[in-house]
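Bug #77: duplicate submission created two jobs. Keeping one. Sequence:
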Amino acid sequence: MKRNGLNLAVNVILILSLLLITLGCAQTPTPTTAPAATQSPKATQAKVYTLKVSSYGGGKNYPPTIIIEKFMELVKERSGGQIQFEHFPNSSLYDMPATGRAISSGIIQLGNTTTSYYEDKIGVFFNAMTPPFTYDWKRFNENYRKTWLQWLQDGIGKTMNWKILWAPKHDNTNTISKKPIRNVADFKGKLIRAAASLTDMVKLLGAEPVIISGAETFDALQRGTVDAAMLSNANFISAKMTDVAKYVTVANLAVSSLAGIMPLDYYNELPSDLRKIIDDAALEVDKMMNPLVETGIKRDLDTLRATPGVEVIEFGRAELDQLNQNVGTKYHEIIIKKYPKWAELLEIVKKDNMGL
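Kept job's structure:
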């Protein structure tokens, strides 16, 4: 009897224990592990491209500076940060000649330069971006993508390993000098800093070309190793050349392009969606150029005129016509004799109404 009572008591305790456990489980939720946040396959696999950039100086208001900075902003935003930029402005990494070579070798992935420094590699195409007396910059910028840009890309793309993203005209080339140049005859006998593409033109003016970079020009003027320099008014101001040379002659000797370029092989290896973002951004900044140039030319002339001790000399219509008809015509004859293919460029300029 005692044994039966004991068994009964044990059974009751077991039943009560089970009831308590069951009630406890019902009131205390079983902890669960939240699923890990998931990303779309595209997000998890997206590669970030960091492009090293070397850009020319010219000051914060210089059109090529404005458009390369705007280009980087647009591409970074539209790629969702998949394309990033490490920017070295004001030629702080490379000067223009070295920038083009660094693009060719893929050391950097974006920069702005001109073709003027590479005649030994690209022949006739070397002065296509900065030819004298050839283009009306407004009409050029409106029409150069029709034929000219592809003509240039086909001619130098593989040789230089360049993808030309944009190449509108951005400024007129003028002269700063230590003695006044008031007419065409005053160029005679002077040592003039010029881009390599302007060598023949400088000789036709009766002067002697000195081929140095824009960054070296201030020192050359100061030391007297050159009498004058051909650059843009924006360059004269940003490099403070008016501290050492007081005469600026506005003769529109050439119209410059400072192209935005990438290594062609690097561009071709990018995913197609990123290439489209780059192409669209390049086209967009291209359209910014004409208003920037118009504003910049007026602003720079006003700045020079207001600089104490500086005289701005503007060639009249007769002097400009003399330059174009005499020096300009002879220049093109010389280049065509040297490079017959130059005639193709002149035909493109005429055909596409780019302002010969």
